[in-house]
């Protein structure tokens, strides 16, 4: 178990880690994600009071941070050298807590219905992260499972308060989440997904756990029915988009920056045109004379594929293991715990996109990638290879596992709760590009998959900013130039230029509407990583030095979290 830095003293790093410890006590889901408090069997308070308690914890941390920074100022005024590590942690903690409180104070928690990462999704996900190696661990899981109805009651109370305040999620989110919850209730045993969860419990505990699973499923069914019959009609006239003011708050939350939305929108369109030209060239190699969409449809239906979820899982595990073996010592220096990463099949009833969960702070739970099957039995390779460089190695796993490994040099906060989505997703997209630069995507199908992934991220910037900020398709758009970027137009535009399935793209659109600002961080984050690398290389060469990419990678991955406002400058100085 990792021991958090003591709360004695008033340095920013101690303030930050005291906040991690206190939040883990207040929010048991945070503790599970970090691998802390393994004996805890609680679930979080998802009621309005629970949300306010977390906000108050953040406000108190900001007050303590004021005191810590004042102490730093006094020490430096007295002649002590400037402590850049403390200053960096202080900047991150202040920016993150301020962004989180701005979202809270605007009442966003009262309309937290969306198809990915909502409180009810997080509630289920925690059970996929809990250890079940011993009878005592199963007992802890069972006690936590018994608390699901209470937690869902709190969540419903928060949404009911949102109805009273006139704060709604959009109708698309309600319809999608209602359908997802219905999928969770389907299964071969009573209790649906929860029943499946406890099938492997020790025989002596199985009957009791099965009872808790049924109760959890009944509470979930009641929430689904309430969303459908009460919340849905109340939210029927709510807009699916959020408008520029709300969008600005969410952009700061997801990126750690106050972005120029019009500049980012124009830049994404330039990326679109460049990627389209590259995709046309690569499609010609896949199927002579074919346009990109034709080539990708052929790859989807007739290209190399893995049949069966287990075969796909093994293929993806092999990709990650092979990447670690090849990159270790040449482009990265990885500590032994980081070389362990697992490929898993995602539970049904979630979003369509693959995802990654980080290892616990002590590495007792490894990093894991998750593949949603969406009921499929055939898994084409063309779009999986680049995706697993993104989700696994050298993408999310290398960054987040390295953060854990250097936690004792930074602060626990900087490598966990202080994570900035655009930094993390930007690194993962940079990792895809790196593997292309290193020659791992020479197969035309695999490289078209990579370019399609890059196109998807450019399209995300276009449609996310366009929909929420109320922009038009520009004059050089090949689609509806001069017309508004409505959700309907965005979905059609996406389908014309991204070679992924209709079900996936439908899920993606709902995701962008429900998590405004999150989707733009991939491409804009990658831009920051590339600018930082280019500036660092130029600085080394200007000094007559050889730029050591491996050393730069490890230094960059050992900084901990940074928002995009700070990332380029910090990377440039390495």
What does this structure look like?
The protein is mainly alpha-helical. The protein has a domain at 249-521. It is 63% helix and 3% strand. It is built from 23 helices and five strands. Helix 12 packs antiparallel against helix 18 (444-469) and helix 14 (309-327) packs across helix 15 (384-391). The longest helix has 32 residues, at 203-234. Residues 1-8 have low confidence and may be disordered.
Tally of helical segments? 23
Give Rg in angstroms. 24 Å
- Main sheet overview: 3 strands, mixed
Q: Would you count the extended β strands for me?
A: 5
In whole angstroms, the N-to-C terminal distance is 31 Å
How would you describe this structure in keywords?
single chain; 574 residues; mainly alpha; 3-stranded mixed beta sheet; two-stranded antiparallel ribbon; 3% strand; globular
Summarize this, please?
This protein is mainly alpha-helical and 574 residues long.
Write the layout of secondary structure elements.
Layout: H1 12-26, H2 28-34, H3 48-77, H4 84-105, H5 119-129, H6 135-146, H7 148-165, H8 171-184, H9 192-197, H10 203-234, H11 243-255, H12 261-286, H13 292-302, E1 305-307, H14 309-327, E2 341-345, E3 355-357, E4 367-371, E5 378-380, H15 384-391, H16 396-405, H17 421-437, H18 444-469, H19 487-497, H20 502-514, H21 521-542, H22 549-557, H23 564-572
Parallel strand pairs: 2-4
Antiparallel strand pairs: 1-5, 3-4
Helix pairs in contact: 1-2, 1-3, 3-4, 4-11, 6-10, 7-10, 8-10, 11-18, 12-13, 12-18, 14-15, 15-17, 15-18, 17-21, 18-19, 18-21, 19-20, 21-23
């Amino acid at each position: 178990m990792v021991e958090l830095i003591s709360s004695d003293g008033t340095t920013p790093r101690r303030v930050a880690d005291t906040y991690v410890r206190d939040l883990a006590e207040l929010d048991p889901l945070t503790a599970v994600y970090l691998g802390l408090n393994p004996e805890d069997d609680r679930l979080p308070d998802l009621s309005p009071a629970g949300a306010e308690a977390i906000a108050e914890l953040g406000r108190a941390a900001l007050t303590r941070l004021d005191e810590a920074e004042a102490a730093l100022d006094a020490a430096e005024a007295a002649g002590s050298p400037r402590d850049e590590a403390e200053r960096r942690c202080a900047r991150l903690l202040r920016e993150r807590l301020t962004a989180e409180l701005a979202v809270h104070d605007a009442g966003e928690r009262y309309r937290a219905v969306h198809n990915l990462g909502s409180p009810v999704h997080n509630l289920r996900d925690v059970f996929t992260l809990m250890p079940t190696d011993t009878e005592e661990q199963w007992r802890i899981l069972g006690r936590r499972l018994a608390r699901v109805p209470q937690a869902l009651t709190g969540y419903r109370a928060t949404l009911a308060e949102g109805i009273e305040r006139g704060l709604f999620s959009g109708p698309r989110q309600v319809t999608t989440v209602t359908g997802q919850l219905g999928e969770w209730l389907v299964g071969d045993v009573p209790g649906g997904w929860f029943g499946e969860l406890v099938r492997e419990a020790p025989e002596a505990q199985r009957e009791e756990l099965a009872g808790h699973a049924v109760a959890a499923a009944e509470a979930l069914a009641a929430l689904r029915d309430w969303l459908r019959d009460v919340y849905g009609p109340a939210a029927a006239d709510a807009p699916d988009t959020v408008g520029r003011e709300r969008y600005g708050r969410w952009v700061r939350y997801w990126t750690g920056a106050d972005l120029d939305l019009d500049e980012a929108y124009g830049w994404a369109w330039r990326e679109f045109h460049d990627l389209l030209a590259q995709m046309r060239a690569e499609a010609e190699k896949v199927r002579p004379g074919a346009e990109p969409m034709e080539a990708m449809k052929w790859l989807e239906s007739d290209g190399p594929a893995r049949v069966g979820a287990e075969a796909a899982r093994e293929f993806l595990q092999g990709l990650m293991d092979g990447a670690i073996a090849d990159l270790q010592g040449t482009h990265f220096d990885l500590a032994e715990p980081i070389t362990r990463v697992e490929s898993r099949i995602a539970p049904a009833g979630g979003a369509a996109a693959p995802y990654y969960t980080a290892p616990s702070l002590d590495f007792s739970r490894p990093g894991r990638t998750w593949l949603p099957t969406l009921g499929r039995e055939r898994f084409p390779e063309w779009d999986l290879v680049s995706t697993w460089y993104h989700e696994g190695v050298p993408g999310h796993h290398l960054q987040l596992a390295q953060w854990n490994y250097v936690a004792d040099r930074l602060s626990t906060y900087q490598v966990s709760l202080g994570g900035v989505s655009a930094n993390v997703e930007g690194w993962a997209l940079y990792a895809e590009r790196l593997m292309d630069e290193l020659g791992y995507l020479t197969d035309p199908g695999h490289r078209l998959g990579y370019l399609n992934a890059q196109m998807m991220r450019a399209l995300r910037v276009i449609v996310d900013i366009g929909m929420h900020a109320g922009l038009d398709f520009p004059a050089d758009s090949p689609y509806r130039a001069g017309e508004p970027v409505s959700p309907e137009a965005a979905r059609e535009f996406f389908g014309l230029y991204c070679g992924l399935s209709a079900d996936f793209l439908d899920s993606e659109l709902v995701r962008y509407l429900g998590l405004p600002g999150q989707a733009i961080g991939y491409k804009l984050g990658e831009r920051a990583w590339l600018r930082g690398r280019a500036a660092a290389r130029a600085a080394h060469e200007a000094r007559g030095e050889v730029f050591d990419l491996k050393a730069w990678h490890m230094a960059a991955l050992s900084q901990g979290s940074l928002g995009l406002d700070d990332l380029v400058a910090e990377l440039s100085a390495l």
